[in-house]
Design a protein that fits this description.
Length: 180
């Protein structure tokens, strides 16, 4: 069993952006290509795309997971990924952080044994840039079944560790103007 698997979430509707963010480009390269290349250079063995298009995952050489709970937000994608991973920990990322770097990934994956989840913190918590212990899978599934959809509220119920990371590595792209 690998220590850490990685799931990149690409199931959102990208309403503010206007098209799938994972396929947006920076310097001629798609966000997905950039993120997955960074993950590969970090030596992660179990990497997958949750939601989005299977053809993208194939192109980028990663596994694909159909989101079991489309339109249920990131918590549905997290439950989907937790049901699949065999690793002790699951690092999750949104598809709109093309500037993620190896140092940030290494910082995120080092979850302290006293915590259930490790969340990146820039000027505020970056809930979707976090590492989760597989041990909380049943708790997540139960909360999801009860109607919970907010990852930050889930974190409030768990032992959550916040770790300071570089603002620039998690620069979130929510609209085309954010690329300027």
């Amino acid at each position: 069993m690998s220590e850490v698997s990685v799931a990149v979430f690409a199931g959102g509707k990208s309403l503010r952006f206007g098209s799938p963010k994972i396929n947006a480009k920076v310097n001629g390269r798609e966000f997905g290509e950039i993120i997955f290349n960074t993950l590969k250079s970090s030596q992660f063995e179990n990497v997958f795309l949750v939601g989005g298009e299977r053809s993208d995952a194939l192109r980028w050489g990663v596994d694909y997971l159909e989101d079991e709970f489309p339109d249920s937000g990131p918590l549905g994608a997290l439950v989907t990924a937790m049901r699949t991973t065999q690793s002790k920990n699951l690092l999750i990322l949104p598809c709109d952080v093309p500037f993620i770097d190896v140092q940030t990934l290494e910082t995120l994956m080092l979850i302290n044994a006293d915590f259930d989840v490790r969340v990146a913190n820039t000027d505020s918590p970056q809930w979707l840039c976090s590492t989760w212990r597989l041990e909380v899978k049943d708790f997540l599934e139960n909360e999801f079944a009860k109607g919970q959809r907010a990852i930050h509220q889930i974190c409030a119920m768990l032992k959550t560790e916040f770790v300071k990371v570089s603002d620039s590595s998690l620069r979130n792209i929510n609209s085309i103007s954010d690329l300027d």
